Amino acid sequence: MFEVAVDRSGPFPVLGLRGHLDHESVVQLDEAADAVPGLPGDGQPGFPSGGGTGPRAAGRNGLRAAEGGDGTAAGAPPVVVADCSRLHFCDSSGMSSLVRLYQRLRPSGGVLRIAAAPPAMRRVLSLTGLDGAFAVYPTVDEALIRPVGHDFPENAPFGCARAARGR
Length: 167
Description:
This protein is α/β, with parallel strands linked by helices. It has a domain at 13-38 and 78-167: Transcription Regulator spoIIAA (2-Layer Sandwich). It has helices at 26-34, 92-105, 119-128, 140-145, and strands spanning 2-7, 14-21, 79-90, 111-115, 135-137.
């Protein structure tokens, strides 16, 4: 079973991932991303669905940076935090769903911040090099307090450098 909840009470929207993110449940993450206003492609069905079932708690929550109401400048690049602290399993389909979210954010200079990934997921992120594309943080709090534009050191190849280790 998989659930995703969108929380916009902090400075950036947080996608709380819970359970097993696999080929049967990726559609829920894709739909939750579609429900984040201000995300590039907002309001357009942009992701292929996997046909999964299960509860989804994602409303029209999202990026307040476009409004300038969260302490960031209006027009600031979008930031989305994926809280993986309650994620028990993530297969290649789940990783692909995260890559699609990253690909939506990247053209506008946005960042996908992966927070509190379990050890097995961190290993896959490292082996695949995705820990260089996503900004990876040890905790959700650390992902939320990092200012926009400070996820990766300047001069980092691929716009990356493993935020959790690059401080």
